[in-house]
Specification:
It is globular and about 50 Å long. The model is unreliable at about 320-343 (pLDDT under 50). An eight-stranded parallel β-sheet has the order 1-8-7-6-5-4-3-2. Helix 8 (about 210-220) packs parallel to helix 9 and helix 10 (about 245-265) packs antiparallel against helix 12. It is α/β, with parallel strands linked by helices. The protein has twelve helices and eight strands.
Length: about 350
């Protein structure tokens, strides 16, 4: 079995949190807080983690900080570690050639740091040039020697819409282990991409924080989402119920997750990183002093109150599928690191 197929098998039916990066008020990564966060997340019901993703501000970090962040997560979790790779903000490439070289270099660093796969940020400078986009994915895979996860990312986060024909071509690559879809609120684009992806037989990985349940009904079979950066069981409970063929449980779990999504993924959408950090503080995953996002918009205190009130309401409704703020889990919820869910 190839490494790509083996990874695809491990991803299918799992939730991978796109984890946050704890920072202080100056924007300096708090590695003590990160190690604590990673240890606590390793005990959550997840099949692995995604680092250097948008939620973790991967493209904003320095090379040295990215390397250390990956090292912490690689040491903490036994499941797959998928590293987002693209053009770092500090690279300031002069043109497509330099941009591609920067993405390739980031992928090589991911491989050297022990990542199991790379997720390629959409090369927005190549929008409309499908041949060049496919070539970039091939070049990255060859350079780092790792399986590649394609990434259809909405424009508000720096991506561009992949047409169905490009989805098909990317998943036809031998190095492709699946595709993540994060269209934000574009239901038709999400559905069309899933239809294009399904014949490949490779994992269709939802990143649809505001359309999580619907994306599973449309055909997604795995998840890599920022909304799982805190309150992982809220997300895992939806996927578990869907895979178990439990319609009642699926509806109940989806309603709970949707309530959380409404107070964390809203305009301005870049504020979701800070909102998830607030949720992580409430859960005890990250200390208050390390819950700063220097790259997002300033948000009013009313938004934090809305996040906390939602979490308190969900916890107050009973054990459900998730632990309360104490971190205690109902029997059967937790998974050992590396023991993901399978369909």
């Amino acid at each position: 079995m190839s490494a790509t197929q083996a990874l695809a098998d491990r991803l299918r039916g799992t939730v991978l949190p796109a984890v946050a990066t704890p920072m202080d008020a100056r924007g300096v990564v708090d590695f003590g807080a990160l190690r604590g966060y990673a240890e606590l997340m390793a005990a959550q019901p997840a099949g692995g983690v995604a680092v250097w993703a948008h939620t973790g501000r991967g493209l904003y970090l320095s090379d040295a900080d990215r390397d250390r962040v990956l090292g912490v997560w690689r040491s903490a979790v036994g499941g797959p570690v998928v590293a987002g790779v693209g053009v770092p903000r500090a690279a300031r490439p002069a043109g497509p050639g330099e941009a591609a070289a920067a993405a390739v270099a980031m992928a090589r660093r991911a491989a050297a740091g022990g990542a199991d796969a790379v997720m390629v940020y959409p090369p927005a400078w190549l929008a409309g040039d499908d041949d060049a986009a496919v070539e970039l994915h091939e070049r990255i895979a060859e350079a780092c020697g790792l399986p590649v996860v394609a990434f259809f990312l909405h424009g508000e986060a720096g991506g561009y819409p992949y047409p169905p024909r490009l989805v098909e071509r990317l998943l036809a690559l031998p190095s492709a282990a699946g595709i993540k879809l994060a269209t934000l609120d574009r239901a038709m684009a999400c559905q069309d991409a899933i239809v294009a992806a399904r014949p490949s037989g490779k994992p269709v990985i939802t990143g649809e924080d505001r359309m999580f349940g619907p994306s599973l009904m449309w055909g997604a079979d795995s998840a890599l989402v920022g909304i799982a950066a805190a309150r992982v069981p809220l997300t895992a409970g939806v996927l578990d119920a869907w895979l178990a063929g439990d319609p009642g449980g699926f509806v109940r779990a989806s309603q709970r997750l949707d309530r959380f999504a409404r107070v964390t993924f809203l305009a301005p959408i870049e504020g979701y990183v800070q909102r998830m950090l607030w949720a992580a503080v409430w859960e005890g995953l990250i200390p208050e002093e390390a819950a700063h996002d220097p790259y997002g918009p300033r948000l009013p205190g009313s938004e934090r109150r809305a996040v906390v009130e939602c979490l308190e309401e969900l916890a107050g409704e009973g054990p459900g599928e998730e632990p309360g703020p104490s971190g205690e889990e109902p029997a059967g919820v937790g998974l050992l690191p590396g023991h993901g869910r399978t369909a």
